[in-house]
Specification:
The chain is of the alpha/beta class. It is built from 18 helices and 13 strands. 47% of the residues lie in helices and 16% in strands.
Length: 385
């Protein structure tokens, strides 16, 4: 038995694609008996447990032990982890994020498991310092926690080459026990068809004309999403191209409301279930990923990037999202704006849309040969005696 361990992460489109779909895929393809183990806070525990269990019935979903300090609550769950590992005769743990990894390492030190893999999705200490997204108790310790997760785990998964460079620079990581596996596509984006006749009908129902150039923005506009850069880009593009419209697939928030008030004929917003997002993306010509220059953004490969490509969209990005910009330039699948805010845009074609989709399936599908090979090697190492 191998546990895939998450702590304090709730069900969402990202959790479906990056956790539940990964566990399902690994079990289907490699027959290694991998089981999701999720620790959730007591607040809204039963509701959030139900959401995960609805998608993965055999997942083990447990409450985190209560503690006065949020910053130490996750640590107390190690005692439950020890017991669960022994009950299920767990041999190894793949842990998502540094907190989960440090719990897994503690379980290894107690002899409850033999090996631990750190599944690194970002530069967590940099996120804490640049965007203040963690409680103070965690923020003050997160660099130490991340260091321990990277240096004391047996194997490491980095989401990008830049994240690996960050580990080497920031924590003097010099082992060769890592592999680089990008964030892969949610299953909803694997089996879909790009049909321009259907697309045009969908656009008409939404009130778009055949001449409109539709930009899609999925996600929030806060923090590392760099709203001011996005605002400057859209303001300039609207000034030079009356055909450009933007559809936000986001919850209501003040930044989007500000744009809607200033450009009422240009901006629309929808908030959809994760399974419905692809249908709105399929209507677009371009996806937007415009980020400020920060460590957080430089090491990231945003989940929406392969999703945009899988729906046939070309992607407009900048150097702040450096891994995205590099991928676009290497594969001719969009526009890197640099400091050029006034760019020429044209409607996508069926040929370009299908090229983008094939690129996404080649590079970000869990069943892609390169990704299959990396997971196969990792699982074999984790299960060796």
């Amino acid at each position: 038995m191998i546990f895939y361990l998450t702590i304090n992460e709730f069900y969402s489109g990202i959790y479906q694609g990056q956790v539940i779909d990964v566990v399902t895929f690994l079990n289907e393809k490699f027959n290694k008996n991998i089981r999701l183990l999720a620790f959730l806070p007591l607040t809204n525990f039963w509701k959030r447990r139900k959401e995960i269990k609805a998608k993965m019935p055999n997942a083990i979903v447990l409450p985190m032990l209560p503690k006065q300090s949020i910053g130490t609550r996750w640590e107390q769950s190690r005692f439950i982890l020890y017991i669960i590992c022994r009950i299920y005769n767990c041999k190894a743990i793949i842990a998502r994020n540094p907190l989960a990894t440090c719990l897994a390492i503690a379980a290894k030190e107690k002899g409850c498991v033999s090996k631990v893999c750190f599944d690194g999705r970002g530069a967590v200490a940099a996120e804490a310092e640049e965007y203040n997204i963690y409680p103070l108790e965690i923020k003050n310790r997160i660099r130490m926690i991340e260091r321990a997760a990277i240096l004391n785990s047996d194997f490491q998964i980095a989401i990008t080459q830049n994240l690996l460079k960050y580990w080497r620079t920031e924590y003097s990581y010099n082992a060769i026990t890592h592999t680089i596996i990008p964030g892969t596509l949610n299953r909803n984006f694997i089996n879909l068809e790009i049909n321009f006749s259907v697309r045009e009908e969908s656009r008409k129902r939404m009130g778009y004309t055949e001449n409109d150039i539709l930009l899609i923005y999925a996600g929030s506009t806060e923090g590392w999403q760099s709203f001011q850069l996005l605002y400057d880009f859209l303001k300039n593009i609207f000034a030079v191209n009356s055909s450009v419209k933007v559809l936000f697939l986001s919850q209501e928030e003040q930044n989007i409301n500000k744009l809607s008030v200033e450009f009422p004929q240009k901006i629309r917003r929808l908030w959809l279930m994760p399974s419905e997002v692809k249908d709105s993306m399929l209507m677009g010509d371009y996806g937007l990923i415009i980020r400020e220059n920060s460590i957080t953004n430089n090491v990231a490969m945003p989940t929406k990037f392969p999703e945009y490509l899988a729906c046939g969209l070309s992607v407009i990005s900048n150097r702040g999202a450096s891994e995205v910009a590099k991928f676009i330039e290497n594969n001719d699948c969009g526009i890197v704006i640099d400091d050029k805010l006034n760019i020429f845009l044209e409607k996508s074609t069926l040929i370009s849309a299908n090229q983008n989709r094939m690129l996404a399936l080649k590079c970000f599908n869990k069943k892609a040969p390169e990704i299959m090979t990396k997971y196969s090697f990792l699982l074999n190492e984790l299960t060796k005696n």
